[in-house]
Structure prediction request, 510 residues.
Amino acid sequence: MSIDILKEIIKPSELTDRGFISTQGIGVSLQPLPIHLIYCILPTQDNFQTIIDNVSPYISKFLTIHIFTFGLIPDSAIELLKSNNQVVSKLLTLLELPLTFTIQTGDLLTLGPNFGISDIYLNQNEVKMNEISSRLRDLFLVMNDRPAIRYYKQSSMATGIANSLEKLLVSAVSARPGLGGSGSDKRRSLCLILDRSFDQLSPFIHDLTLEAMAHDLLEVKGHVCTFKEDGQTFNVKFDDNDQLWQGLRLKHIADVSNEIATKTRDFSEKNHIQMPEGEVTVAGLRRQIAKLPTLLPEFQKLQSFLALASKLMDIYKTNKLKQITQAEQEFATNLSSDGNPIADNFALYYNVFEEAVCNEDKLRLVLLFALKNNTGISYALTDKLLTSSKIESSKQFIEALKLINFNMVEDPSCARPAIQRAEEDSNISTGYAHSRFVPYMWHICKGMTSQTLEEDAYPFVGERVYISATDTTAKKAFEFGKYSARPDANAKKNSPRLYIFVLGGTLSNA
Prediction:
C-alpha cells in the first residue's frame, strides 16, 4: 500500500527527475553504494526490522537514512531502532505523516481502515464529526490543498462536518501560509461534503458496466477479481495504469466482448498473426497463447478480460437479470423505456419478483419500488414482500436504513428527503434501455465543474469560490485535476482539484 500512497503524492518520473536512482520495495537487497536511503513505509515492527536487516551489512557505505511512516510509529518499533546504534548514526529523518485515509484507486480514497458506516451513523455526535473533519484536513495537508467547502444542506452531519473542517483549515493556513500553493488556479479547488441520502436509488441498482458488474457479482479483493471460467481460474487485475482496463471499465457489458474482439484482431493484424474466422472466444485465445509464447502477456490480458465479460454475462443470464434490471430502471426513473409513466402497482411486477433467482435481487426490487415516490409503501405491503423475499435480516435491514434517511415505509412522523433524479445525458448514455438510469452523482459532478450546482441546496461555508460568466480567463482556469484538458504536466499539477466526500461511502456506478 505504501507504493500506492507514494504514487499519489509524487509520480515516479518526477522522482527520477529529482535525482532518485530507483524506487523499490524495502525487501529488495541493497547495493553497497554511497547513496541516501529514503523509506516510505507503514509503521510496523516487521518493516523496521526489514530495514535494519538490509542496511546493517553495508551501513558504512550509505550516506544517510530517512524514514517516513504513513501513521503513528509504535513504541516497540522505536525501541527496535534505538537498539541499533549503527542505523541510528545514519538516521537523519524519522517522520510520521498524517495519512488517516486509505487509497483505493487513483481517484478514490476512504477514511479507513477501521472507520466504517456503523462508526459514522451510530455515533452521530460532535466528537465523531470532529474526527472525520480532522481526517479530511489531513488529506488536504498531504495534497497541499486548501479547497473551498460546500455541503449538502439537508444533512445535519454534512453541515456539522463542513463547519468543523472549515475551522480546521483556517487554523492550518495560519500555521502554513503557503498551504494550497500560489496562483489563482490552485486556490479554486472545491470540496463538497454529502451523506448517502443525497442519492437513495443508486445503491440498489444493477449497473451493467464492466467494473460495476464485477464488484456487484464477483469477488474483488485488492483490485484483483478472481473467478473460474471455461475450467480455468482467472485473476484479473484492475490496474489504473492499464490502458486496456481503462478503455473497458466503463463500457456496457454488451459492448465489452465486441471491443475485446476488435482489439484482438487489431493486435493480430499488427503482429502478422492469422486469426481463425468467426467469434473471438476464450478457448481460441488460449490456443493462440500456446502457439505464440512470445506474445504471451498481450494475449493473456485479452483472454482474461474476455473471460471476465463472459463470466458476467453467464451470471446475468443465470440470475435472470434482464427482467430484473428492466424493472429496476422503471422504478428508478419512473418511466418505461418508451417514456411512459409507471403505475404505482407492484402487482404488475410480481412475476419478476417471484422468479428472481437471488433473494437479494428481490430485496432490491422492494427497496426501489419503495423509493419510486416520496412517501414509501405501506407497512402491510412491505411486510408481505419482505416475508416473501426470504431474507432473514431484511426487516432489520429496512430499520437500519432509517439511520441514513432511507425511510422505505410510509410514516408521516418520519419524513425523508425528496428523491432526486438526474436527467438523462447523452454524454454518458450507453444507448441500452436497461441502463437508462443516471446516478445523481453525475448531476453533482457536472454542476460542480460547470458552476451550475444549486447553491441553495449545496451552500458554501467560509470563502466562496465564484467565477464570473464573462471572465474567460478564469473559466479557462477552472479545470479540475485529471479532467483538465491541458497536456502540460505542471499545469495539471497546479490546476484546481475537486473533492467529493460521501458519508456512508460511494459506489462503482456513482
Notes: The domain at 1-97 is CATH 3.40.50.2060 (Rossmann fold). Residues 467-478, 482-487 have pLDDT under 50 and may be disordered. The first helix runs from residue 2 to 9.
